[in-house]
Amino acid sequence: MTRVSMPRQEYLWLLPSVLLGDGRSAGPVRRSTRDWFVDTVMFLLACVLNLLIALEMDGPTPLVAAEQVVGVISCLAVWLRRRWPVGLAVVTTVASAYFEMVGGAGVVALFTVAVHRPFKVSGTIAGLGLLTIAPFSVLRPDVEPTGLVYVIFSLTIVLTVFAWGIVVRARRQLIWSLRQRADSAAEEAKRLERERIAREMHDVLAHRLSMLSLHAGALEFRPDAPAGEIARAAGAIRSGAHLALQDLREVIGVLRHHAVTAEVPDRPQPTLADLPPLVAECEQAGMAVRLTMETGDVPEKPGRDLYRIVQEALTNARKHAPGAPVTVAVTGAPGEGLAAEVRNRLPARHGPRIPGVQIPGAGAGLIGLTERAELAGGRLEHGPAPEGEYVVRAWLPWPGRT
C-alpha cells in the first residue's frame, strides 16, 4: 500500500480545517451584490451592538480602552465571516468570556456558522458560547446586568441567534431540495419526450425503410420485369426515400429544438382514418392485405395508437413473412374498447423465402407495441396460432359517451 507523505507545514494548515470545519480558501471570496449588502448589514449590526455596550461603560480606564480596541478589531473581523466562519466564531466566543464588546461580532459569527455549517459544528460553537457565560459573570461582576438576570439574558441571545440560523439553513436546504426536484422533473420530462420522439421515429422510419427494401428486393429478384413495373418501383423507391429523409430531418430538428428546453409542438400525427391509405400503400408495394373496419368516430388518441400498432404489425409481416397474405380487422365501440387483429401466414407454411427480399429486424418492434398499448391503458398479445398463422391482437380503452 502506497503512503503519501505530506510536509509538516501542510499538517499545520490542515489542523484548523479538521478541528474547526473551515476549508482552506484558494483565493479571495467573491461576493455578489446581495452578499455585499448582507455583509454590510452584519457589520453595521455588530457596530451598533458594540456602540450600545460602549455607552454603558464608565470613564476612560485601561480596561475600557482594551474593550474598545477589541471591539473595533472584532467588528472589522466580521468581514472575514465568509472565508473563516468557524475560526471567527471560535475566537469571538472565547474572547467573550472576558471582553464585553466582542459580543456583537460573536452574535454575527454564531449566526453565520449556524447558517453555513452542519449542526455538529454549529452546535459545538453554540455550546461553547453557553459555557462562556459563567466565566464572564465571575470575571466581570461589575457589568450590568449581573447574576441570574445576566445568565438568562445571555442564554436567550445565544439560543435565539442559534435557532434563527438553524431555521435559515433548513429553509435554504428545502429550497435547494425543491430546485433539485424541479430540475429532476424537467430532465425526466425531457427524457420521456425523447423516448416518445424515438418511438415515433422507429414507427415511421421502419415502415418507410421496409417499403424501400421490399421494392428494391423485387427489382433484384425480377430484373426482367417490364419497363413500366421497373419505372413504378423506382418511382416508389425515390418517393419513399424522399419521405424517409424528410421524416428523419423533422425528427433531428425536433431533437435539436428540444435541447434548447423550448416546448416542442407535436408534428401532425396519423389517426385511424389514415389506416386505409396505409393499407393501399402496402398493396402498391406488392403485399396482399385485406382490411375490415367496424368502428364509428374513434377519438384521436386511441385511434393514433391503434394506427401505430397496425403499422408496426404490417412492417413486421413484411420483414418476417414476405409475400404472405395479411388480414387486418379493426372493431370497436364506445365503452367496449378498440380492438385490432393482424394475421399473416407463418413463413414455413407458405413456401421458401424470396432471396434478397428478407428485411433485417432488431426485435424491438413487438416490445415497442406492447409498451405503447400498456401506456395507453390497454394490452397486446402476439404469437403463433394453431392455424399456422402469426397473430397480433391489441385492445385499447374507448370511454363511453357521456
TrEMBL record:
EC numbers for this chain: 2.7.13.3
Keyword rRNA-binding included in the entry's annotation: no
Transmembrane portions of the chain: 36-55, 62-80, 86-114, 121-141, 147-168
Annotated ranges, domain Signal transduction histidine kinase subgroup 3 dimerisation and phosphoacceptor: 193-258
GO molecular function: kinase activity
InterPro entries (alphabetical): DUF7134 (IPR055558), HATPase_C_sf (IPR036890), HATPase_dom (IPR003594), Sensor_HK_TwoCompSys (IPR050482), Sig_transdc_His_kin_sub3_dim/P (IPR011712)
Reactions mediated catalytically: ATP + protein L-histidine = ADP + protein N-phospho-L-histidine
Entries under Pfam families matching the protein: DUF7134, HATPase_c, HisKA_3
Domain Histidine kinase/HSP90-like ATPase positions: 304-398
Keyword Transmembrane: yes
Keywords recorded for this protein, A-Z: ATP-binding, Kinase, Membrane, Nucleotide-binding, Phosphoprotein, Transferase, Transmembrane, Transmembrane helix, Two-component regulatory system
Span of domain DUF7134: 34-172
Protein name: histidine kinase
Source organism per UniProt: Nonomuraea corallina
Lineage start: Bacteria, Bacillati, Actinomycetota, Actinomycetes, Streptosporangiales
